[in-house]
Design a protein that fits this description.
The structure holds two protein chains of two kinds. By secondary structure, chain A is an alpha/beta fold. Chain A is 41% helix and 25% strand. Chain A is globular and about 55 Å long. The chains are: A alpha/beta, B mainly alpha.
Chain lengths: 249, 311
């Protein structure tokens, strides 16, 4: 398997706080990598650093053999790196359709507004929002807005997709629905890195797990092995989860 | 072409008929109306479309007035001088925009305000070029006779208004306008979908400056004498914002209606309350904005809405 993304000794400091400390990790083409860890571990910062929102203080980020450490957000977006936000970021006054059209329009230079809107309809169909296409984004429910985020990310024709807690705040039926979507995306060949707190989803979807703690990578490997590692149990999962997990096998 | 944009063009066409009915006073008023409309439409590009409350209008008005004035004194033709002012101010604003537009909200407002002061001081001190505080005399450019002069500058300003309106309409229905609307709503998300926000904002700032500069240039040629405290008057920054708010933020048609309404109020109040006209105008504006926060263009839709509720 070839690598699509590589972080080499990436650190990110905010004043005195080191949010990422010498993180070295690669993402293989076609895999679904779960990024887990306690709150404040640096998961979102890692995504922000790759996307150019908060550029790395040191280290290098390589995407498809191209150095993207210093690229701006819109440049990484055009290369095929897209993401959903943990706190949804819709264009509130726009209709759902125009939200997705914006993503199609600006991520591929040379697209016309008309063709972007046509394309957007297909993506809304995929996330089952076609009935809400002409509704303004501000009127959608949280679950719908999360799916809208996903449609926006897909309209950018991503090679690598970051999903930042797409399931947070959803009920179990909605989570099941979102999980099915993620499976479909993975099957279509998009490489996915997902930040997720629901271990059930992580174990269901991910082919590999990386664990961050205090800005450092403390584990990386197949899901079943990683959740048994004592460091991961101590830092994040807790003894109770480990025992329950062991009991269920 | 949307209905409101069509209404805007019809309105502008109606204004052009003014010289058929009116004398020099109405022509003077018409020229100012066109100028105000240019200022308001321009401000709307950066303030209404992109959501950046700029107070730099006076800076570019003064810049255009002085650029044109200096060129006219050097014997350059009026049209050429105004076009030169237009192009150079676009470049200047777009360049300054890449720096200033990193700030948002109040911080951007203050920074853009300081631009007026910086340019005013520059003109004040570049005595050799601009005459400094003494002001600048500008040679007569148009034909002789009061009425011929008045209609020449009326049509000059009207032509500029038409050009501004056409460009603003083109922008509002283009990819650029769509991008600016994205930036206004959520700049983080805009960057994330691959929109080069810095570039778009700079173009918007340039567009909001260039027609203002051209208006300043025509104004300078019209009044024959300019000085820094006249053309860098902070009111040139504040008035377009009030007009846009009165008319309906973001809508080109609304903004031009706001400009006409503002001028009407200004003139009526000035005539009737010459001692306290600023105070009365201020109170009227506050009342208007309190009871009509979304401007004149919201009147029609809100009336329909009420009717529907009673049915």
């Amino acid at each position: 398997m070839s690598e699509i993304l590589r972080l080499h000794r990436v650190s990110r400091r905010f004043g005195g706080l080191t949010a990422l400390r010498e993180v070295t990790i690669g993402v293989n083409k076609g895999e679904v990598l779960g990024l887990i860890g306690p709150n404040g571990a640096g998961k979102t910062t890692l995504v922000n650093t790759v996307c150019g929102v908060t550029p790395a203080s040191s280290g290098t980020v390589t995407f498809n053999d191209q150095d993207i450490t210093r690229l701006k957000t819109y440049q990484t977006a055009r290369l095929g790196l897209s993401r959903t936000f943990q706190i949804v970021q819709p264009f509130a006054e726009f209709t759902a359709l125009d939200n997705v059209a914006a993503a199609a329009l600006f991520s591929q230079p040379g697209t016309s507004l008309k063709s972007a809107r046509e394309e957007a309809r297909a993506h809304l169909n995929f996330v089952k929002l076609d009935a809400q296409a002409d509704q303004s984004a501000a009127t959608l429910t949280l679950a719908m807005r999360k799916r809208l985020e996903l449609a926006k990310a897909l309209a950018m024709k991503p090679k690598l997709l970051f999903l930042d807690e797409v399931n947070a705040g959803l009920n179990s039926a909605e989570v099941a629905r979102a999980t099915r979507l993620i499976h479909q995306l993975a099957a279509s060949g998009i490489t996915i890195v997902m930040i997720e707190h629901l271990m059930k989803v992580v174990l269901n979807v991910c082919t590999r797990i990386a664990v961050l703690h205090n800005g450092q990578l403390i584990a990386d490997g197949p899901p079943r092995d990683v959740i048994k590692e004592p460091a991961v149990v101590d830092a994040y999962l807790g003894q109770q989860y480990a025992q329950r997990n062991a009991a269920h096998g | 072409m949307t209905r409101s944009n069509l209404a805007l063009l019809v309105l502008i066409a109606c204004v052009a008929a003014l010289p058929l009915f009116a004398g020099p006073y109405a022509l003077r008023l018409g020229t100012i109306a066109c100028m105000y409309a240019v200022l308001a439409l321009s401000w709307n590009v950066v303030g209404g479309f992109a959501g950046y409350p700029s107070f730099a209008t006076a800076a570019f008005f003064g810049f255009g007035a002085y650029a044109t004035g200096v060129l006219l004194n050097d014997g350059v033709a009026l049209t050429l001088s105004v076009v030169a002012a237009l192009i150079s101010s676009f470049a200047l604003a777009a360049l300054l925009g890449t720096v200033l537009l990193r700030l948002r909200g109040h911080y951007f407002a203050i920074a853009s305000l300081s631009l007026v002061e910086v340019l005013r001081e520059f003109v004040n001190n570049a005595t050799d070029l601009t005459g400094g505080g003494m002001g600048l005399n500008i040679p007569l450019t148009s034909g002789s006779g009061i009425l011929a002069d008045a209609s020449f500058f009326f049509f000059a300003m009207w032509g500029l208004l038409l050009a501004t309106a056409l460009v603003v309409i083109a922008v509002s229905s283009s990819k650029l306008g769509f991008g600016l609307a994205c930036i206004r709503q959520n700049e983080t998300a805009s960057n994330m979908v691959g929109l080069n926000a810095t570039l778009y904002k700079s173009i918007a700032f340039g567009l909001s400056a260039c027609f203002v500069s051209a208006a300043g240039g025509i104004y300078a040629a019209w009044v024959h004498y300019i000085d820094p405290s006249d053309v860098f008057d902070i009111l040139y920054s504040v008035k377009p914002i009030v007009m846009a708010l009165m008319g309906g933020l973001g809508s080109p048609f609304g903004v031009v209606c706001g400009a006409l309404l503002y001028l009407g109020l200004e003139e009526v109040v000035w005539r009737n309350y010459i001692q306290i006209h600023s105070g009365v105008l201020g109170v009227l504006i506050v009342i208007l904005l309190l009871f009509l926060p979304h401007g004149l263009t919201s009147l029609r839709t809100s009336m329909f809405w009420r009717k529907a509720k009673h049915v």
